[in-house]
Amino acid sequence: MAPDSEPQVRRRTPNLAHDLVNELTQRILQGEFATGQKLPSETAIVSEHGVSRTVVREALSKLQAAGLVETRHGVGTFVLERRAHAGLRLNVDTLTNVRSVLELRMGLETQAASLAARRRTDAQLAQMRVALDDYGRLLANNDSCVEADRRFHLLIAQATGNNCFPDMLMHLGASLIPRTQLNAQERGSEDFSQLGKMAQAEHEAIYQAIRRQDADAARAAMLLHLSNSMERFHAGP
């Protein structure tokens, strides 16, 4: 019989590490683990989540591959600044390449929105609501909405239940939000506050379709949002 001190762990399944990655990612994105902060030790994560050390190490490895954390041997695992995530290192410093990323996202995120509408949980929907409310509050205060914007899109990707979607978006890093990539000359005289309000309304339409579990409407709302983003940032043909 196992010693009393041996932690009780759940049987390892293919989704166990993925579930842990999702939870830790959310805690990072929502600021519970701040940039530069050390994550709990392997032992603490094992105890909190009831998983094996193998699962914890696999999850931390995935977070590191996604550019969310770095492990310093003998010291611990630390949260990286999100804007520094190079991911695939896509070249997005011109309008032409902003268009390329948006075209990629049209294929990826329209499908993600459709799947999220079918598969999302109430908890995931609640997290999307928080992201949108944060976006609205920041916009009203004329503060940067980029983190809340990116978080909303990542939450949709995670709600697909298919880890390839959030993995791909996390690899895109800062290029996920086009307005972070454009310099003053490229964006011209556009009022970014007004652009933010337009995006806010489009996000709300996506959210409401996912809330109703209307997959077709969610797909259409996401396509409209990304198409409008292309128009707003002068990335059309």
Description:
The chain is mainly alpha-helical and 237 residues long. Helices cover 61% and strands 3% of the residues. The protein has ten helices and two strands. The chain has helices spanning 16-29, 42-49, 53-65, 95-119, 122-140, 146-158, 164-172, 184-187, 192-212, 215-232, and strands at residues 69-72, 76-79. A two-stranded antiparallel sheet has the order 1-2. A hairpin with a 3-residue loop joins strand 1 (69-72) and strand 2 (76-79). Helix 5 (122-140) runs antiparallel to helix 6 (146-158), helix 6 packs antiparallel against helix 7 and helix 9 runs antiparallel to helix 10. The longest helix is centred in the middle third of the chain and has 25 residues, at 95-119. It is globular, with a radius of gyration of 19 Å. The termini are far apart. The model is unreliable at 1-13, 83-95 and 180-190 (pLDDT under 50).
Largest sheet: 2 strands, antiparallel
Helix content class:
55-70%
Low-confidence stretches: 1-13, 83-95, 180-190
Shape: globular
Roughly how many Å is the radius of gyration? Answer: 19 Å
| Content of β-strand | under 5%
Terminal CA distance = 69 Å
* Widest β-sheet, arrangement of strands: 1-2
Structural class: mainly alpha
Please provide the ordered H/E string of secondary-structure elements: HHHEEHHHHHHH
Number of helices: 10
Strands, count = 2
Give the mean pLDDT.
79
Write the layout of secondary structure elements.
Elements: H1 16-29, H2 42-49, H3 53-65, E1 69-72, E2 76-79, H4 95-119, H5 122-140, H6 146-158, H7 164-172, H8 184-187, H9 192-212, H10 215-232
Antiparallel strand pairs: 1-2
